[in-house]
Amino acid sequence: MKRLETEILVIGGGAAGLSAAAEAAAAGAKVMILESDLHLGGQLVKQTHKFFGSKDEYAGTRGFKIADILLKEMESCKENIEIHTNTTVTGYYSEDDTFTAMRDEDEFFTIKADRAIVATGAQERLIPFVNNDLPGVYGAGAVQTIMNVYGVVPGKRVLMVGAGNIGLIVSYQLMQAGVEVAAIVEAAPKVGGYWVHAAKVRRMGVPILLRHSIKRALGDEIITGAMITELNERFEPVGEEKKIDCDVICIAVGLTPTTEILSQAGCEMMYVPELCGNVARRDSSMQTSNPKFFTAGDASGIEEASAAMVEGRVAGLSALKSLGYPTEHGRLEEYWGRLQALRSGEAGKRICQGLTCVLTEDWEAVHNG
Amino acid sequence: MDDKEMLFNSGILTEEREGAILPPEELWKNKKGGLVVVECPQRIPCNPCATSCPTGAIRPFSDINDTPSVDHSKCTGCTLCVASCPGLACFVIDLTFSDDLALYKLPYEMLPLPVKGEKVLCLDREGKCIAEGTVENITQPRKDRTYVIHVSAPKNLVREFRAIRVVK
Amino acid sequence: MDEKSGPERGVGRMDLIHDHPILEFSHGEKITFTFDGNSMEGHEGEPIAMALHANGVRVYRETAEKHRPRGFFCAIGKCSSCFMVVDGVPNVRTCITPLKAGMKVETQHGKGKVFEGAE
Predict the structure, then answer these.
(1) Which of C3, C13, C15, C23 to mutate to test the interface with A (most CBs of A within 10 A)?
(2) Which residues lie closer than 8 Å to B143 by C-beta, 6 or more apart?
């Protein structure tokens, strides 16, 4: 079996992973990026909207353009970066300190790395309702992939489940692609995403039904509609069910961090509801309890892409530092300042609560008692 | 929770509040070029409206989560914020267009693109058609495919008219 | 909605987004492949699942026990909903496996047969 080596292995070439790789490679470290998708960019390449944040996080620039900016940054230090797309990391064997990976479903190889940055992103959640397994019930990320990356029409009329940022943004993107959005249902009494995103789809005539949820999907083989219902304060169905005609039910009820590799590496894990799942404990350098492993982006807790990019920078910088590379004084503090700014709004409160549970002092202090 | 609150919670502005205040009448009614109307009532980490404003009319933020605060005396109605706001929450309304019509400058990122002189539907914050307007101009201030459509429509819609639908 | 879904199947009927206010799409070369024996068009190098969807195919496999139809769900290779038999090999993640000219794509029944790939 082929055996590869690198100094810093970056698992996942999305917003966090690319930022980490750019940071580390610019300082001269040998970096390898493994990406399971056919191209780099992760969720960034699917975003047609302009990003929030400040100039430092490319505010006002559309997501897919930000992916281009990061790739261009990497171009300037490409001799230090080895990229493998269509390559999935399948495991980490701690006894051999070796990663296994698979390219294109049939080529297997192993990797030895001095440090690993786990930026594996997240996976879509599903909620229980009758027929939620029928073809046509698609994750919001999947709908973005099919229409914004591959230019394929996802359906004729879509019911969106969930009014978080993803549900709101994808509804808007569906309209841009010429697809009708029948309605957005949201179980909470308030949209979870940014208010301005909600206003944007509302003024295009899309109803946002708060305190509503989907009861079942209709159809035998594929989706022909959905039954929705109002919910009371205890989230119990009340009143008569209403029928929505649709051929796609788009699920945007949240994401769960993808963390298997961190678990396999023995990193201390913790279930943190505010970060949407099981995540690795880490110090402010994004280093986990296994000193060789760092984490960043959605894999370390679900948050906006702007924060993922800064976390990636932190992880890249810290991995460099731990390998003995000289790093610019005050840079880590600058990144943390940016993260704190991004997290000090209404939506950031939850993240900060989650972080207080999962952040430790630096590990040396912990290990030395 | 009352209906007004529920409506607001679903993305409909129901009354003026912090980050969503109409310009002062006196300043507004004779201001050639119009003044900005910002509808951004929630603290989120975002500042392109302020950083894109060439005159400082949208005051610089001290915290990136600030809701926009506008010094209308400095606003020229240039629409750079309209084209820059990621939330499409900035609009410019010029009350000097004619006796009974105002010129509404609204962000647009959909297809089809209207042409000058075309009649379009005027939509309120819920997407309901409230009037017919005429496209007077189409600009693309940042050359990034966020268009600003200038539509003449009745003056009494300043609190309602926020989007257009192009019917081809 | 009455139809049994989507566009009609067959060569030359890919349901693609032609005009978009923000994005421009550049597709791979147009090639043909087969789905359950029917010839279809797709773009080389783009995921198999996308080509199928563009051709109106929504059902990619049938589950082992309850024989429920399955399409794709996550489209990023993480959920196993879109497993199909590709060139005789079962359990291929069609959402992230690039399409090649002449590929033989088949609906997967249950877990698929491992040894068909050996022929």
Answers:
(1) C23
(2) none
